[in-house]
Amino acid sequence: MARHVKCPNCGVYNTNETYCTQCNTLLSYKKRRELAFAQDKKDRLERERLQNEASPSFYEKYKDHKFLIVRVVVKITHSIWLGFMAIGVFIAWLITAIAA
Asked: CA 27, CA 12: separation in Å to the nearest integer?
């Protein structure tokens, strides 16, 4: 059975074609969705790469600084932060254990 598709770009009717014979526009909706999905995935991965590359954490940015005092301050700050996080996790666990 022949499949007749009207080109959305130039309006020419094409029979059993994936691309328009007149303007070479993609006619297959399935192929168009696959290409759009692949492009979205590529864009998402590029955004994630740029985000990770463009905004390193405070600790990652300064842990290997050339000045000793900066490295010491960063490591002390990081240790204090980890201590607060550990205390917070313990309190959350304690409240959950008591409620259960």
From this structure: 11
- pLDDT tens-digit readout, 47-84: 888 887 767 788 888 888 999 999 999 999 999 999 99
Asked if 21 contacts 15 with a C-beta cutoff of 8 angstroms, the reply is no
Other Cβ atoms within 10 Å of 7 Cβ, number: 19
Tell me the residue type at 8.
Answer: P
CA distance 7 to 25: 7
Place of tokens 């996080």: 85
**CA 16-18-23 angle, 5° bins:** 110
Instruction: Please give the structure tokens belonging to residue 5.
Output: 């598709």
C-beta separation of 36 from 48 below 8 A: no
pTM flag (> 0.70):
no
Ranges assigned E (strand) in 3-53: 4-6, 13-15
